[in-house]
Amino acid sequence: MSRISNFLEVLERERLDAFLVTSQVDIRYLVGFSGSAGMLWVSPERVVFLTDFRYETQSKEQIGDRAEIHIITAEKGYYDWIEELKLTEGKKFVGFDENVVKYGTYKRLISRFPDVNWIPLADPIGKLRAVKDHDEVNKIRQAVDIAVEALSETLPLLRPGITEKEFAAELEYRMRRKGSERPAFETIVASGYRAALPHGIASDKVISAGEMVTIDFGAVFEGYASDLTRTYFVGTPDKKFKEIYGIVLRAQTTAIQSAKPGITGKELDGIARKIIEDAGYGEYFGHSLGHGLGLYVHDSVAVGVRNENPLEEGTVITIEPGIYIPEWGGVRIEDDVVLRADGAEVLSEQLPKQLGDIVIPVD
């Protein structure tokens, strides 16, 4: 079945006559349009895409016959087209994503179309996006490969004297050279004491010998993101770093081995968390084990204590335990995995993570 057909089944279950899609990510998922402006009307009778003149050619090329295409102008805007095409005629209940539509937009909708009951739903298309098809997994795999190859080429620059910002810039440059549309997010390079910051965006700090360096980065291929983390040590690691690195690696490896369809996000999080807690560092692991991955870096699936829903086959998630100790530093290891019927396939297994692999010798 097509993605539109699957979404129409959602509307039927929710007893909606139509849905107005305003999220550009959801529009891309449903009909393939990758531009930055547009609205998509979905009903059993018609699928209509509205955008402005900048995207007239692009929308026709990308959408094809998946939707009617109409171009707004200064004289005829989105709501004028909805009215002229009589899209709301006979429609009592029309849905919208309450996490996307702003209150001002909602007020304009109820004012312009008072005969419609506008029904808010929380991320209904996200539930469809969670399970990836073969093509989507391949695009994420491509994004992973781009990121891994770029890091491998950039690692020789990870030496005392380079700043975090400089290393991040070199890494992002190489991801671009290899086909990434953009960085999936602002690259994290956090060295020494700054590695205690889970989201330590690259700073002007100079990397020195004897420091750990956490690198969290990702590429984007045809809209789909990768999200990877490795923690390196510049020089000879001491006993405490080896201990903590070993704990985090054991927690991540065990979680990956346990990941399979049917396990809940809470259960999977608990498997890794217990290992860190039993080692005495539970208070230093303050975030969830992972998240969904796709057209959003943080897609709709949560791998944490609040998600008691079973994870489905085909879901792509990150598994990224960490330990962060103020004034000392931190360790995080993150891989991207897809849940198969027989367990987890690690899409980033080509990026080494054993202790011997992450030590950067210093002359």
Summarize the structure.
This protein is α+β, with helices and mostly antiparallel strands and 363 residues long. It has helices spanning 3-13, 24-31, 56-63, 78-84, 103-112, 124-129, 134-154, 164-177, 239-258, 265-278, and strands at 18-21, 39-42, 47-51, 68-71, 93-97, 117-121, 188-191, 211-217, 220-221, 224-225, 228-234, 290-292, 299-303, 316-319, 322-325, 329-332, 335-340, 343-346, 359-360. A hairpin with a 3-residue loop joins strand 15 and strand 16 (329-332).
Question: How does this structure look, described?
Answer:
With 363 residues, the chain is of the alpha+beta class. It has 2 domains: 3-128, Creatine Amidinohydrolase, Chain A, domain 1 (3-Layer(aba) Sandwich); 134-360, Creatine Amidinohydrolase (Alpha-Beta Complex), CATH 3.90.230. The protein is 33% helix and 22% strand. The protein contains 10 helices and 19 strands. The strands form 6 sheets. A 6-stranded mixed β-sheet has the order 4-3-2-1-5-6, sandwiched between helices. The chain has a 4-stranded mixed β-sheet with strand order 7-8-11-19, covered by helices on one side. Strands 14-17-18 form a 3-stranded antiparallel β-sheet. Helix 7 (134-154) crosses helix 8 (164-177) and helix 9 (239-258) runs antiparallel to helix 10. The longest helix is centred in the middle third of the chain and has 21 residues, at 134-154. It is elongated and about 70 Å long. The termini are far apart. The model has no long low-confidence stretch (mean pLDDT 97).
Structural topology:
Elements: H1 3-13, E1 18-21, H2 24-31, E2 39-42, E3 47-51, H3 56-63, E4 68-71, H4 78-84, E5 93-97, H5 103-112, E6 117-121, H6 124-129, H7 134-154, H8 164-177, E7 188-191, E8 211-217, E9 220-221, E10 224-225, E11 228-234, H9 239-258, H10 265-278, E12 290-292, E13 299-303, E14 316-319, E15 322-325, E16 329-332, E17 335-340, E18 343-346, E19 359-360
Parallel strand pairs: 1-5, 3-4, 5-6, 11-19
Antiparallel strand pairs: 1-2, 2-3, 7-8, 8-11, 9-10, 12-13, 14-17, 15-16, 17-18
Helix pairs in contact: 7-8, 9-10
